[in-house]
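Input set for joint prediction.
Command: fold jointly, output tokens.
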Amino acid sequence: MAAANTFHLRILSPERVFYEGDVSMLELTTSEGEIGIYAGHIPTTFVLAPGVMRIHEPAQGKTTANIREAALHSGFIEVLPEEVHVIAEAVEWPEEIDLNRARIAQQRAERRLKRYSSGMNVMRTELALRRALVRIEVGEKR
Amino acid sequence: MASMTDLKKRRASVSSTGQITKAMKLVSTVKLQKTRVQAEHSKPYFGFLYDTVTSIIASSPDVSSPYLTPGEGGKTAVVAITSNRGLAGGYNNNIVKLITQWEIPKEDLVVYAVGTKGRDGLTHRGYNVVADMSELINAPMFLDALYLCQQLLDAFKNGEIKEIYLAYTSFKNTMVQEPKLLKLLPLQFDQEEIAKKPSFSPMNYEPGEEEVLEQIIPQYMAGILHGAFVEAIASENAARMQAMDNATKNAEEMMEDLELEYNRARQSSITQELTEIIAGANAIS
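tokens >
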């Protein structure tokens, strides 16, 4: 059983169980904006937007409190009374990010945005640009 | 009786074929272990998606989504997952057979082929193959599944297709793989199972139930597709391993028979030579 001020977090990606453990707070970006989740949050399902996710790990025994960051691209989050599930389409730790590739993707998306002015392509390109920016933000901090 | 040189050549060719099949068996065994792990890793993700979708539908039965009702008119789409390589026993053929023996006639079907063997087999039989994504079965990524899913959903929304099926080989164990047809869209859920779900009411949805479903259902479908890809690859390797194992055993059996026949031919040629020499010696004296 988790301590009173923590909750159980599970982050799943298609390839693996990305993270599992008791955390004190989770910060992430939803389609409606950035949110922070503490234990005892009202049961809710959010749609995620590309953004930096911060996992606040509580102090446990010898380890001190710690904040881990990851790039979270899309998917959804389900907040249940006891548990929180993040079901992501793609999620990466900083050390897994290829910064060069992200920078190239950023440039490509920016160029493409100048060419198109409206329609589906712009939406897709904007999403790609946001993903690239999130990757760069997370990757640069390592 | 075949001559000794012929038998020798036969024996050499059977033995090298046997070596090749043996090597292929070993390769498939290693690949099978790898792909099996992958298939197992993708299972919890899919299970979660399924749970979430059913619990949303359970807690809000009046939610409406275009994905829950069959389209009007249009054709039936089937995603046929096969491999790009042969020599896997009945693996590819079983999927083709599954589709050709289906009750839906080929005029009403459009095929989204994943895997060149299935694509060629179905084209040959006069099926309408509208998309070919054979490349992705070499190394399936979730993004590929998402992309294929997007294509299918676009066609579904445009009214080109009214329902979507998935034909793949499910991996039971190393010895048993079962070709399967699965309905992807419109989504169907077991009402009993939904009734059993604990519903965490009141569950809130941000931005709203329909928007959340709109986001989750494509992801859910992509999850099924991705799961089917990795499972199909595991099945392919298991099927190939079995086929190659049989081939190796067969080659060994043939080698034994040929060995016997060769020895017999050798013995009879010696006997004949001896008879000739003796007959010659008798004629001179």
